[in-house]
Each structure stands twice: as structure tokens, then as C-alpha cells.
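Replying to the earlier thread about multi-chain prediction with a worked example.

Input:
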Amino acid sequence: MKRKMVSVMLATAMLVTMLAGCGSGDGGAAGSAGGSTAGDAAGNGDTSGSTDGNGVSDGEQITLKLFSNLPDRKNGQGLVEQTIIDEYMVENPNVTIEVEALDEEAYKTKFKAYSMYGMPDVVSIWGQPAFLDEVVAANVLAELNAEDYTDYKFVEGSLDGFTYDGKLYGLPRNTDIAVFYYNQKMFDDNGWTIPETYDDLLALADEINAVGITPVAMDGGDGWPLAVYLSDLLYQIVGNDYADIVSDAFADSDFSAPEITEAVELLKQAADAKLFQNGYDSQDYGTAMNLFTNGQAAMFYMGSWETSMATNEDIPEDIRENIRVFTMPAVEGGKAASTDIAAWNGGGYAVSANSEVQGEAVKFLNYMYQPDKLSKYGWENGVGLSAQDQGDYLTGSETELQKQIIDILNASTSLSGTPINDCGPSTFKATIESAIQNVSNGTTTVDDFLSIIGTSCQ
Amino acid sequence: MKKLYSNKLVILSLVLPGVLLFVFAILAPICLSVYYGFTDYSGMGSYQMIGFENYRNLFTDKTFGIALRNSLLLAVGFICIQHPLALITAAVLDKLGGRGENFFRCVYFIPNVISVAVIAYLWKFIYNPDFGLLNNILKAFGGRGDTNWFDSKTAIWAVLIVLIWHGFGWGMLIYYTGIKNIDPVLYEAATIDGANQITTFLKITLPLMKPVIQVNVTMAVISALKQMETVYLLTNGGPGNSTQFTANYLYQQAFKAFRYGYGNAIGVVFIIICLAVTVGLNKVFEEPEERKLKKRKRIRAKAKGVS
Amino acid sequence: MEQAEKKKSGMTKGILWIVLLMVAVIQIFPLVWLVDFSLASSNELFTSGLLIIPKTIQWGNYVKAFVDGHFLLYLKNSILINGLAVILVVIISIMAAFACYRMRWKLSGFVKMLLLMGLMIPIHATLLPNYKIYSMLGLTDTIWALLLPYVAFSLPQALFLMTSFMESIPVELEEAAVMDGCGIYRIIFQIITPMLKSSIATVAIMTFLNNWNEFMMASTYLNSPKWKTLPFSVLEFTGQYSSNYAVQFAVMALTAAPAVLVYILLNKHITKGVAMGAVKG
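Result:
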């Protein structure tokens, strides 16, 4: 009560201060503050100008532009990328690497804008048809020499998504697994257990909701995590027929196969059972993740690249040290074994075909992929799994979360491959990622959803 | 004088910058849009001319329909909610007088000077179901406070509220200026006549404000059509396409779905709609204009007669 | 009787104040909330109270926002781009207005109409084709990519305002100037322009307000931080500090601050300018 009172008073005080400033039109204090800001701004401009001038030293000056989908440069994968960039610039003083980094969704949009006319030298890409087909067809990316990478220990099959007609156009950065992160302490405190089956998961949702906590934080605003969830379910239902069923659906532009229908219905059941947070279909990545990392949600459905949550100092200690994972529980009557997991090689890097400094760009790319760079640093920073063999870098001091992830991968009997939304053309991707919000929240029926996405890839 | 004032070279030099800008920044892109609107250009690589295919698709495109419907909803919201509120507030403010008047006028306008990027993200947080301001207010009044403001059925209203809130000060200021321009003699006359505040507002302020209201209504409809930034940042058209707007949709089609040609076709139709609506509204408002002038004179004469 | 009247008017005043205060709270409270949350630490945000009393006030949020948000650079860019746009709009609109309304030539009506057409064209419809054009000409990621559309789309309104003010300037003045042997340019810039002071202020304010908020063009046409404008601070932070809400609040408050401060400082002029522009337009 007292707190509330104080907060009301605080509110009033702030309101009054703001309004007071407003009433007296020509407040001297505000004036000088405004003035000094403008002055500083000009000063700052000058300094940045002069550093540009001083930058030139011996040798030919090369500027590499790197366009990245990792805006957080102080944590996780972004930190790893930045570390390698900094090292490269120290070893090659004549090279400056400029980074432009955007959020995933913004990144993809801007990437497409770039691909119309001139790409930065090194770019993040996804080795998936929805992203790469059109880009490769337009000759925007430089062909890489596959033989360069025989010693780079890429995991078998991980280059497939980046290869067209036997030509290699990019290199994979991660092996991604779709997982439920969960807060183990919260589970223990409440006596919840990890669900064995999908029905268990939905039942668990009721229990968790009953204590006023969100069961699963879902980035539904972006659409693609819902599509990954759907693919995960489909994989649990059909097991290794996944690839065939998906490619048949695309071939006929018909998604009404009973297995796909069932997967969509299971997704809808989850939404109906309030498995996801209130308003999941409009909340973005950051919002969903923050629910989980601030203890408002018991679980978080995302890819293994977020393993670095365990080492992120911004996350309260008692939460980040208790994050564990499990994969999609078995669906009743499903063909997949419990060790069959939804995993794929998605994100990676490529070099622009019309880069003026292509040689240097490829050199930097190869530098990044030296097994003791991206792969090693990634592992040391707890950033999920790379697409290269990381066996050499196991130190035993990994976070629990990392060990769990590697165990899951090592124990896996089979991997799903690319999620369904990334298997078709980009029109399909755009359509399914917005339509899937509607089908999960009940605005459209399952049948309509299937016909909408079918039409979009005709 | 005449010779000086019809010197072709001088005229050319004066209008050339403006005309060049128009041609380069407005006309050329429109022509380019028309051209690409007839192609299946994805944004890169080769493309083919496909005639009116894009436009045919547009007519059956449900999302485009939703975008137009949303613009209409928004315009109605502006006209039926924002503008009456702004007009009444302006009238009340006009009665206040003194320092308070300036103070409130200043305060109401503040949201207007804040960048849309800040406004959109701020409201994203305000609507957040878990720690957002709105749900916390509901809780403070004993509600459950778990409303999902961006539910696919209500999201458009959530967007509307933000836009109404953001643009309120602007509308208020325009009405306020309009009211200030009304001859105070009219009010005095009415007071002597024994009319109360509400009658005065209905009988004098409102009729005299008609031209201002008309301009404002036109602006509201146009700005509802043009809406992009707030939606792009607040919901990006979601959930589903429930808060989709034309400008946002064409952007998504071009840069997300790789349908640059189709996006341009939407752009062309978008421009045509904007032109048609502006011209149409002007036509609608123009005709009674003459009659209104006479009417204003009548009111003035009447008021004078009363005094 | 008189007393009752006074009492009544006092009561009405009271009601007026209450109504107006309520509206003021609605308009301002979200901003107060923003500032309040920006001073807390991230894990304090999940509260059910209206405002938070931070355990310790986190000025560090603002330091992060200031440094990592490139605040000064982006502010400088915003001011520079908007300032240049205002200057160009004013000069070009005065010249065009004079030519179209004072000088005698056949196409004046047509050109005027052409330029005013821009009022009806939605700026975002030109996003896609302009991106193509600017890319081909190598204008993306330069200041021109923003200046050109900003000026072009502010011009129609400016022209409209300028002409309506210009109409009220007596022709006799110019005639006298012509007698003295002034050329057209001197008439425009030495005689007409000083008389248009208040409309120049209006045009400047309208142009500034319209373009200050713009970021769709900026985010499409710009790549490097070199010319990025203030809204980018906010946009970039949602990615950079996705797991630190409080800092996101801080960067929003910081980004909003310059415009609010300037407005509070100049509110009388700005209000007048907007009002004049609105009523004429």
C-alpha cells in the first residue's frame, strides 16, 4: 500500500515538473541544456571526421563491409563475430571491417533490398530455399571454392543447403535444433516434470497457468517460430517421411495431407490450451525472450542458438544458471523416435558476387571459418552448435545448457532438415508466416489455412 | 515592368529547381512504378512483361482489401472519435483563458513532436500484457489486467488509439485556432440572449467552424490512407494481416515476398486511390461552400439582430 | 444574485480545469511512465504498479543509450538533414511561388498545379521505385537519398503557404523597386523575402516537424551510421539490447528529449506557426 502511495506521489511530482517546464515558456535552464547538446553534436561530428582522415597508414587500405543479422554485439553469437572481426583487423592492419547489423526480420528485408542492387561484401545468409533460391538464381553471391574447405571439418551434409548444381555459395554457421528452454528451478519448485508426450505438455500448460505463470514464451509476432513449431510437430508425426511429405506438398501446391492437417491442429490445440503467453501472436522475439529470462514464463521455444542465455550477464543469475532444455515431446501415434529431433543447418555467411574486394572478403570468410575461430569461440561463449566438428574444443567447463545440447545432438538418431516455411519460395514464406498467426489464434480455419498457403506457392 | 515580369529565362531559373525536384523525386518514381507494375520482376535477375496480371491479382487479394478496410476504419475513427474530442477540448480550452490556456495547449501538443519510432515502441510497451501500463491501470482499478490488446480482432483499435493519441494535439490546435478566429461579438450577443455554453457551442461555434472541420476531415481521411510508420513499427500488419495498411503491404510484398513488380502495382493503385479520394472530398465539400458563405452571413446578421 | 453567478462561474471554471487536466494526464502520463521505467533496472519492470521506485536510480541506462545509441552523431545528422531540407524548401518555394503567382507566362497555372500535385501523392508509394533509382545512381547511403524526397514532398505545402501569404503583399512595392532598377532576383530576395518572415517560419516549422519523424525512407536508403538519423537509435537498440528493457526505455526517452526540449522552449512560436499553416492549408 505504502509503495503504491509513494509511486502515485512520484508520478504526480514528475507530472508537475514536466508541466511546470511547459508553462514557463522561456526557462533559462532548459535553454542552456538545449544549446550545449547542439554544440556537443557538432564537436562529435568533427572528431569522427578527423579519425577517418588519420586512418590511412601503410599498404593498400581496404574496407570490408559486413552485413550481419546479429545486432547484439556484446553477447552470444554477435560477440563471437565481433571478436573475430577485431582479431582480423589486428592481424591485417590495412583492413577495416564495417559492420551493419540488424534484427533478423529487418535483416531479411534489407537483404532483399540490397540484392536488387549491390550487396555488402560479406553477408549473413540462410542455406534454405526460401532465402537462397532466388538470390543464387540472380547471381548475387560469389561462388566459393569447395575444395578450400575440406579441412574445415564441416559436419556431413551441412553444406547441402548452400550448394546449387554442385557449386558452393555459402558456409553454414550453426547447427540449429528447435528446443524448449525451461527454467529448471521453477519446475522443481512447483513440482512440474518434463513432458513425455505432447498431451503431457498441454496438461502441463494448465498446471503452470494455474499458478499465474506463462507456460511457453513464444515469438509469434514474427511468424517463423510458429512455423518451426509446426514443422517440429509434423516431424514428430511422420518421422523420416518429413522431407517427402513436404516436397510432395510443394510439388502439388497442396498441403491438405492428413499429416500436415494434424500438425496444424496440434499447433492450434496448443494455442487453445493457452500454452503460449497472452498476445503471443503479436509479440516479437525480444518480448518473448524477456518473458522467459525475467521469470515470467516457465519455458521458451526457440533455436539452440540462444544457448548463450546461460552466460548473458543481463539475465538475472538465478534464472540464467537454471536454464535447461528438452525437445518436442512425442506425439501420440507419431512415427518419430524420441531421439529424432528438429534440426537443420540454417544461418551462415556468403560473399557478394559484385564485391570490389572479393579476394579480401573470401580471405576474411575463410579466416572466420578456421575451425579455431567461429567454431571454437562459439563453443567457448556458449553459443549453441556450429556446423563444424567441435569435438576438439570440449573443455569440460561448458555450461550445463551446452552439455545438454551436445548430448541431445550426439544421441540423436535422425534430424528433420529445413523447417517447412523455409522450404518454398519467399512468397510462400511471407504467406505462411502471417497465415500461421491466424490459424493458431482461430481467425481462420485449418482448411482455409492449408488452402491459403497452397495457393501462395502456385 | 511587364517585360521584366515575363522574362522567360528568369522564370525558368525560378521554377526549375522545384520542377526538377518534382520530376526526379515524384514523377520519375511514379512512372517507374507504372512500368514495373506490368512486370513479374522479383527485384533482381530477369523479368517479363505480364500485362495487367498484377492488377487482376490485386482485385482478388484479400489482404489488400483488409488494408483498404483498415484505412476506412481509421478514417472513421479519426472523424468520429479524435476530431469531436479535439473540437470539444479546443472549445473548452478557449473558455479557460489566462496562463492555464497556454499551458494546456502546450502540453497537449507534446506527443506530436516526438518521433514516431519512439511513440510506436513506447506504445508497444504500454500494450504489453505482462508489465504494460494499460493492464497495470486495469489492475489498479481492480480488473484482472490480462487483456491482450493486440488480439486479431481488436488490434486495429489498439493501433487506432495510438494514432488518435499521437495526433490529438495537432487536431486540437487547428480547431483551437479556428475558434480563436471567431468574432467574440457573436458570443457576447448569444450570452445576452441568454444562451448557455452548450447552446452557444452548437449554434455558433460549430456552424462557423465548418470550413475548418472540412479541411480537417479531408486531412484525416488522407492520413488514414497514407498510414505506414506507426503500423510498421507497432504491429507490422499482424497478427495475421489484421492491421495491414496499403503502404506497409506494398513494402512487405516488395522486400519480404520478393514481388517487386506486384508491390509497384499496389503503389500505383495506392496513388490513384489517394488522388481520387482527395479530389472527391474536395468536390463534396466545394459545392455547399457557396451556400455556406451565404449561411454564415445570415448567422452573422441574425446575431447582430439579436444584439 | 451576483454572488450566485460568481459561484456558478467558479464552479464551471473548476469543471473546465478538471476536464482539461484529465486530458493533459492522458497525453503526458505515458511519457512520465517512459522516463520512470528508463531509470529502473530491467528486472524491476515486471511490476503491477503504475510506476516503479527504482532501488537505485540507473543512470547507467542513459550512459549506454548515449554511447551505444550513437546519440550525438545521429542527432547531428537529424539536425543537419532537417536543417538543410528546411533551407532548400524555403528558398525553392519562394522562388516558385513568385514565378507562378507574380510573373506572367502561359504555363504558370500548369506548373503550379503540377507542383501542388505532390500534396496528394503518398510519399511511401515512391519508396520502391526511388530505391531502384537511387541505387542505380549510387545515391543510397548518401545524404541526398533523404534530402531529395524530404524536400520534394514538403515543397507542395510550402508553395501553397507561400503563395497565400504572397497574395497579401502589395504589388506597388515591387513596382517601386522596378523603377529603381532592381532585377527579379533582388526583388525576390531583398524585398519579398523579408516580408514573408512569418510564413517562412511557418513553412520551416511544418517542414521540420514532418521530416523529423520520418524514418521509413531513412531505414530503406541508408546503410552505414554516417547519415543515420535519430530514430535509428531506438530501432538499433531493440536488437542490440534485446534482453535489457530498461536501456530501451532510456534510449527512447533520450531520443524524444531534444524535440520536446526545443518545443517547450519555443512553444509559442511553434504553436503559432502550426496554427497559421493549418488554417491557411
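The mean pLDDT of chain B is 86.

Feel free to reuse this layout for your own posts.
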